[in-house]
Amino acid sequence: MAIYKERRRLCYSPQQIFELVAQVERYPEFLPLWHYANIAREQQINSSHKVYVTDQVIQLGLVYKRFRTTTTLEANRHIHIVSSDPLFRKFSIDWYFSPIKESQDKKLAGKKGPSEKEGGSQIDFILNCEASSILLRPVFEVVLMDTARSIVSSFENRARSIYEH
After folding, report:
1. Which stretches of the chain drop beneath a pLDDT of 70?
2. Percent helix, strand, coil in the chain (nearest 5)?
3. Strand 78-82 and strand 88-99: pairing?
4. In a 3-state reduction of DSSP, which class is residue 122?
5. What is 2-163's CATH topology?
6. What distances in angstroms separate CA 53 from CA 56, 67, 114, one per listed residue?
7. pTM value?
8. Which end of the chain is more exposed for a tag (fewer CB within 10 A), N or C?
């Protein structure tokens, strides 16, 4: 089973990063492995909670794998992504977004960016994945873990390109 956790402090507000992560259909533009993503169904639960089902395709070398996820969004605070697709024995991703006050992180105070007044955000990213196929498991663990290490950086770079240009 592959589990990856990362905590990062960014100079963007929780709302800004939340919005980037929630735009799943844009993933193929900047995320490694993602070849296709399309929201198949969407439901607004209440003013702060939304759920959508997404069809996605990732590329593992020469192999393309299609799978479906269900994403639950708690506005600007948490995104929970799961898949019961037969491709996976287990698949979940959790994103947690919390504001940082400027006094809590002196490093952010010197950075320029639109959220400097808010003080930025702390991002917690947790990926838990295991392929169903014993043959695919080693490939998934190597490729997905390499990709997981770059996911938060990919979103940080995306934020920089959108919010600072």
Report:
1. 102-118
2. 30, 45, 25
3. antiparallel
4. strand
5. Alpha-D-Glucose-1,6-Bisphosphate; Chain A, domain 4 (3.30.530)
6. 10, 11, 31
7. 0.85
8. C
